[in-house]
């Protein structure tokens, strides 16, 4: 029997479903209204096992630390020592990942070159070829060799400091690309030999080789074209890292680049970004294992990318066996992407600073992911380059801080034994013990 | 060996791959100065080696006297390269300028992504001939396999025989001329009216490659341009 007056009965609160959460419901409604999937830029936004789930142990009774600000802790790295006559020597092990002129404005590309050069690291071209500005402002420039071969030419190949054969990227292993018509300006069109203003597809397969046996011959050709001088990188999206890295090494790579699913893209279907590929945390150890099994660890260098944000991330990636890391999204943020000063304009675009990801639309208020001359002019390449240089310096300083605390005189002396995991997932993926235990799931009992 | 080739070889410098390495061959050809008087070379005993005569930027003549492996004449920029045999995958890939002549058959991806120059294949070409071509002209005197001119952007592909399945799939602005039959057209490729400009281009290419044929016997194919802007209504075409 209910004696409570109706006006006093507690009401059931509105309750959102964990399965049909507000984002999911909005996506169903959007799909129903438009009949087309969502395309966006950036990398995966879901929560994944990541470097945050690892901790360094630091020095104590059985390990001796190095003095901060006094004792040397090296950060340099040499890439391409296997076959190339002219390996690359970088002062810090943080490189700038491949991003195209087309996806990015000319000023953004120049700023990336300026920032990277200021701290002694490399930057990378993207789909669409090498611009003179980029070459001019980048002391060390990696030239991507992509399936589309947009803008690929012999003169630029010989101007490059290294060549990166792109098999795939973490945001979309197995996928090609699409640069929408609004970003195909006259200059972008001319560089890509395409009509202005049309959607431009980037192929998902290389036009003249298939599989590792062909790749071996392709790498031979690239070396013959460039007098065996330039390091040849092979970049893969993280999916089957053990076998992919082993096959890249077998095909003759000097350097392998492994990009986790957190790695960004200029324009890809949301479903592809979020549902294909594996997190970088889970990919590094199998890749290193492949190198070790072939006797090639530290002989073929490993660059990892996908969600690197801090010096701690850099140190953790290196401790797990990488030689260097690459950053893309973080570099764009350092340039000015998603800056709060443009909040009014982000609001007009239906988003907010920190969440803007419609990089494919060419309307970037920060002037980075656009070909609109007025928007692009907002980005001062000198100031933006300085911001990137500052950020890269902080990454190196943070990584050194951790390495010294672990008693390491060089970042490359960091090792898995310096790490523990906070979660079972991270412990299993990174193959380091759960904190406070000797237990690694699947390895020890 | 033809009498003409025999004659040209008599005046040529000879490079024998049975006694010297591929590296030495390419390094030598790539370092020839623009004013060199050694303008004619014969490469003996190629034996299907890969990456033969790649990246040459001097307008010299190179006769490869036998079969070539993958990527022969790759990224050629100005040289006149003759392959007196068959060529494997990717002959003249990404050529910038110059002339490449395959006397036999060519395997897959002949002339892939090439920006300029002329590639002539006396025999047949396999799959994906002219894939992603960006300005090169290709004349195939025999047949081409499937997916000829896939994603081809600009330049002309002339096929004097028949074309296989999915010709011109996802084509941009390249021109395709076929004398024989076409097994099927790929997505967004259609038959076009042969314009006066087309006829001039075709006649010139036939003339340059020594083909005795009437332009009226060819059919012109090109992009229907329906897939130039992504639209969900076209999803079934992909």
Account of the protein in words:
The complex is a heterodimer of chains A (445) and B (238). By secondary structure, chain A is of the alpha/beta class. Chain A has a single domain (40-430), classed as Aldolase class I (TIM Barrel, Alpha-Beta Barrel). Chain A is 33% helix and 13% strand. In chain A, strands 5-15-14-12-11-8-7-6 form an eight-stranded parallel β-sheet. In chain A, strands 1-13 form a two-stranded antiparallel sheet. Chain B is α/β, with parallel strands linked by helices. Helices cover 13% and strands 24% of the residues of chain B. The mean pLDDT of chain B is 94. Chain B has three helices and eleven strands; from the N terminus they run αβαβββββββββαβ. Chain B has one domain (3-237): 3 Solenoid (Pectate Lyase C-like), CATH 2.160.20.60. In chain B, strands 1-2-3-4-5-6-7-8-9-11-10 form an eleven-stranded mixed β-sheet, with helices on one face. Chain B is elongated and about 60 Å long.
Any descriptors?
heterodimer, A: 445 residues, alpha/beta, TIM Barrel, 8-stranded parallel sheet, 15 helices, 13% strand, globular, B: 238 residues, Pectate Lyase C-like, 11 strands, 13% helix, elongated, Glutamate synthase (chain A), oxidoreductase (chain A), GltB_archl_type (chain A)
């Amino acid at each position: 029997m209910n004696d409570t007056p109706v006006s006093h009965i507690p009401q059931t609160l509105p309750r959102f479903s964990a399965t049909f959460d507000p984002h999911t419901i909005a996506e169903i409604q959007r799909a129903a209204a438009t009949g087309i999937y969502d395309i966006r830029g950036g990398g995966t936004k879901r929560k994944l096992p990541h470097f945050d789930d690892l901790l360094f142990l630091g020095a104590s009774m059985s390990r001796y630390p190095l003095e901060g600000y006094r004792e040397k802790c090296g950060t340099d790295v040499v890439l391409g020592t296997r076959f190339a006559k002219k390996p690359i020597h970088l002062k810090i092990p943080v490189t700038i990942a491949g991003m195209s002129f087309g996806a990015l404005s000319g000023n953004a590309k120049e700023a990336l070159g300026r920032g990277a050069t200021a701290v002694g690291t490399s930057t990378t071209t993207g789909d669409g070829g090498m611009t003179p500005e980029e070459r001019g402002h980048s002391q060390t420039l990696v030239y991507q060799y992509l399936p589309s071969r947009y803008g690929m030419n012999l003169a630029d190949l010989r101007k490059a400091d290294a060549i990166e054969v792109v098999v795939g990227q973490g945001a979309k292993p197995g996928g090609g690309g699409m640069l929408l018509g609004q970003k195909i300006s006259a200059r972008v069109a001319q560089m890509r030999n395409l009509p202005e203003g049309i959607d431009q597809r980037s192929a998902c397969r290389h036009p003249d080789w298939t599989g590792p046996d062909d790749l071996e011959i392709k790498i031979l050709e690239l070396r013959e074209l460039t007098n065996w001088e330039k390091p040849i990188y092979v970049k893969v999206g993280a999916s089957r890292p053990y076998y992919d890295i082993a096959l890249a090494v077998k095909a003759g790579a000097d350097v392998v680049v492994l990009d986790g699913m957190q790695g960004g893209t200029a324009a890809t279907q949301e479903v592809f970004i979020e549902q294909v590929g594996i997190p970088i945390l889970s990919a590094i150890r199998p890749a290193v294992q492949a190198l070790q099994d072939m006797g090639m660890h530290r002989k073929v260098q490993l660059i990892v990318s996908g969600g690197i944000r801090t010096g701690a991330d850099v140190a953790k990636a290196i401790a797990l066996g990488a030689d260097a890391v690459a950053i893309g999204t973080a570099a764009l943020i350092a340039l000015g992407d998603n800056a709060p000063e443009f909040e009014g304009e982000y609001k007009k675009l239906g988003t907010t600073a920190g969440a803007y990801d419609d990089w494919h639309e060419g309307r970037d208020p920060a002037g980075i992911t656009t070909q609109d001359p007025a928007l692009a002019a907002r980005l001062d390449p000198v100031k933006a380059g300085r911001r990137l240089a500052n950020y890269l310096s902080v990454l190196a300083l943070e990584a050194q801080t951790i390495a010294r605390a672990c008693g390491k005189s060089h970042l490359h002396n960091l090792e898995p034994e310096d790490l523990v995991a906070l979660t079972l997932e991270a412990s299993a993926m990174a193959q380091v013990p759960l904190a406070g235990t000797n237990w690694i799931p699947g390895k020890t009992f | 060996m033809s009498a003409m080739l025999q004659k040209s070889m008599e005046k040529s410098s000879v490079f024998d791959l049975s006694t010297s390495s591929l590296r030495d061959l390419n390094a030598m050809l790539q370092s020839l100065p623009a004013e060199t008087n050694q303008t004619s070379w014969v490469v003996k005993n190629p034996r299907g080696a890969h990456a033969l005569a790649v990246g040459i930027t001097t307008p010299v003549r190179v006769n490869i006297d036998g079969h070539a492996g993958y990527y022969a004449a790759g990224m050629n920029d100005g040289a006149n390269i003759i392959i007196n045999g068959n060529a494997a995958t990717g002959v003249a890939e990404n050529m910038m300028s110059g002339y490449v002549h395959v006397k036999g058959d060519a395997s897959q991806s002949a002339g892939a992504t090439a920006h300029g120059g002329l590639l002539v294949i006396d025999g047949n070409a396999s799959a994906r001939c002219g894939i992603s071509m960006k300005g090169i002209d290709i004349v195939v005197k025999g047949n081409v396999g499937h997916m000829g001119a896939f994603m081809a952007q600009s330049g002309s592909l002339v096929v004097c025989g028949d074309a296989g399945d999915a010709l011109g799939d996802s084509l941009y602005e390249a021109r395709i001329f076929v004398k024989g039959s076409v097994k099927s057209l790929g997505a967004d490729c259609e038959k076009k009216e042969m314009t006066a400009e087309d006829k001039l281009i075709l006649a010139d290419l036939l003339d340059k490659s020594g083909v005795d044929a009437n332009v009226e016997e060819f059919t012109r194919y090109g992009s229907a341009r329906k897939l130039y802007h992504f639209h969900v209504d076209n999803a079934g075409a992909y």
